[in-house]
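It is worth pausing here to work through a concrete case rather than discussing structure prediction in the abstract. The textbook approach is simple: state the sequence, then state the predicted structure, then interpret. We follow exactly that order.
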Amino acid sequence: MDPFLIGIIGILALFLFLAAGVHIGVALGVVGVLGTMATIGLTGSVSLLATTSFHFAINPEFVVMPLFILMGLLAMMGGISEATYSALGKWVGTIRGGLGIATVGACTAFGTVSGSALVTASVFARVSCPEMRRHGYSKGLAYGIVSSAGAIGMLIPPSLLAVVYGLLTLESIGDLLIAGIAPGMLLAFVFTGGILVIAYFNPTAAPAAPYKITWRDRLVSLKDFWPIMLSGAVVIGGIYGGVFTPTEAGAFGALTILLIAVFWGGMHWPQLRTALNETVSITAMIFLILIAAKVFSRFMILSGVAPRMVNAILDIGLTPIGLVIALAILYIILGAFLDSISMLSITIPVFYPAVQAMGIDPMWFAMVVILAIHVGLITPPVGLNVYAVKGVAEPDVTLEDIFRGTMPFFIMMLLALAIIIAFPILSTWLPAQILH
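Step two, the predicted structure:
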């Protein structure tokens, strides 16, 4: 059988597996192995599977992934996220929409130790939403804020998705982490401005906190910022200053968070054991997906699908920015049905060679892709961030309430995405200055 036809059948089989609810790692692995077997035979496919799995898994840059995951879980278990939100609330909570702005700020700060949109959204759904609702916020707006602001954590380093992207494309993980700082801050500012606009036109949806906060209260609350600032300084400052590699920054960051959580947050062995167990579970799941994606990628190359796809994209005659816009739209659509790592694992092996062939800046493209993916994560019918928040939401909050609350932020994220596409320098300037 023609290898190209085998490749097309493999892609169709992959989507059938996904539609049937098969885990993405299993689906990619089965299609990749069987497709390779049909293309080059049993002996060649077994050898390719063994060598691909081994050489991909022993990559030392993989170490950064469990470290970043552990940082986020330790910060949550050690009460660091709750303390940060409470302190921010004292500074901005008394203005209209202030608690919402504090939530965005806390999600941004927590992003410096989490690296996961789902973890950030889930944490602040438990920490900040009940507090906002107690002060009169509509439940749709309160939960819409945390569902959407979780995306900031996937742009601000240490971004887990940037690490995954770097491992799939072999781009510098350090460059990718630094490239996310400006887009992450841009998204935080857009959300802040959007909340102020919502509060201005609909004061009942986001009222000011009724109590008075003295300057003494605000100054005393400054002590609650130091854990998140110190851990962020260790990770970002270490990479920024060239003191650490991203892997070393992850190790020192995890140690910093652990010491703070134990000696400042009062974390005990049961919480630490839970954090370690969840880190192992999440890391194993991601490893399965990435190794299976690598096998699937080799199948796409051997079958000729990837090279033909590259040529087809180039023959369309799109300009580089036209291709970036088209792929951003595709990722927004896919984000409504798939999780972020699955999207990258399926699409990057097919599209990234075309991006390279057209000379598109890899840092710019990476930031566009990561934000576009997270636009999709708050859109129905799937919207994984929304489902994660619903899992920890109060009993009277429905999925419809949360999806309705995310719609203004969907528009804000599209605005931020348009700005990042229009101004590539936001993604490229900082890594060029710092790391080169």
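Step three, interpretation. The mean pLDDT is 82. Residues 3-435 form one domain.
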